């Protein structure tokens, strides 16, 4: 996932191994859109279903983990979703603004992180299915870097699959995190942030603008 340690330790790896590890920097985020039929098939009556797919270097699913909850899943920060006592999912490549912010249209005045957490919790309130993707190296980590999608269905009203990070960026709840060179950690989401920057969420407060 573009981790800095790959660069710092590159001299200790063979060229072949380094190339393989660099290849892991891209596939999960570029794995393409979720198959709507597949994510719908995961739904269970009366439950919120959460499935994590772990991808290998060949951009294929190496393993899966599944969870189901009658009470749903909850945001414990602007970027983190508590799965159980052992596992937290961390939205990769995005971040809340720093410090305080005001959005009069939403009636919010307070900490940027609280604003992001409120919006993440809204996304977690009513999905039938949450499907997340991660590298296979994350599988046993207590805090796993992921990208997530939600399937939302209300008969006659709503039938959609939405990417969490894309939505949170487009409503100005989060912004793109940057690498040390200033480039975005998630270049696939640049257009979503542009929508948010039109004046939504955090971007309604001039103090949040770089």
Features:
single chain, 6 helices, globular, eight-stranded mixed β-sheet, two-stranded antiparallel ribbon, alpha+beta, OB fold (Dihydrolipoamide Acetyltransferase, E2P), disordered N terminus
Short description:
The chain is built from six helices and twelve strands.
Descriptive overview:
It contains six helices and twelve strands. It has 210 residues and is α+β, with helices and mostly antiparallel strands. It has a single domain (34-208), classed as OB fold (Dihydrolipoamide Acetyltransferase, E2P), CATH 2.40.50. Strands 1, 2, 3, 4, 5, 9, 10 and 11 form an eight-stranded mixed sheet that branches. It has a two-stranded antiparallel ribbon with strand order 6-12. A two-stranded antiparallel ribbon has the order 7-8. Helix 5 runs parallel beside helix 6. The longest helix has 14 residues, at 112-125. The chain is globular. The relative contact order is 0.16.
Q: How are helices and strands ordered from N to C? A: HHHEEEEEEEEHEEEHEH
State Rg: 18 Å
Helix content: 10-25%
**Assembly category:** single chain
Helix segment count? 6
Number of strands: 12
End-to-end separation: 25 Å
Number of folding domains? 1
Q: Based on the structure given, which CATH architecture is correct?
A: Beta Barrel
Determine the CATH topology.
OB fold (Dihydrolipoamide Acetyltransferase, E2P)
Which segments are poorly predicted (pLDDT under 50) over 5 or more consecutive residues? 1-27
